[in-house]
Write a structure and sequence with these properties.
Number of strands: 18
Number of helices: 2
Distance between the termini: 17 Å
Shape: globular
Helix content: 10-25%
Structural class: alpha/beta
Largest sheet: 6 strands, parallel
Strand content: 15-25%
Length: 212
Amino acid sequence: MRNEQRLRTRTHESRAFAERVRLVMNLTARLNALPFDDLDARRAVLTEIFGRPIPDSLSILPPFYCDYGLGASFGERVFINQGCFFLDYGGITIGDRVMIGPRVTLSTAGHPVELDERYDFITHAPIVVEDDAWIGAAATITPGVTIGRGSVVGAGAVVAKDVPPLSVVTATSVVERKRLKPESPAAPAATTPSCTTPTAPCCSTPQVAPGT
């Protein structure tokens, strides 16, 4: 992924990340249990999730799922439909007048693909959705991607490379990108992933570019 950074697992930093995830899991559970008409309570919980006041014009329909919160920021008049997942440790920036359809996933985190490294690091890279973009239902945006101004991502697309401004992208397919090296004798047994979060942002959809 572009602009990739790494967080080593089993460190003070990764434990702090895991603690934040536990807090946000509880907050999203509270959010999604609120009556739909209780707008003031929903806004208060969202402010806790994101760690700062949110724009008055931001509309997020529950249920909504987030694993970190502190990495997300929003422009004006943003609409986020039901059932969306924001895995935002790497940073998610949403511009003005962005529309996000139901069940969209924005995932900024993963693991190294090489088996010898996979359980030792969480990789992460920011997602940027520029002004006036529209992301269709059940699309997945992978780490390091920028969705250009005014563009449309079709329903169900898996986007693993930047979308130019004023473009329409659709479809998904499976393309073999590379062959991995065999597991070395020193590598840990691949039994239980060392994800530090119960939502496993690092266990996200494989990165396959739309239309390939």
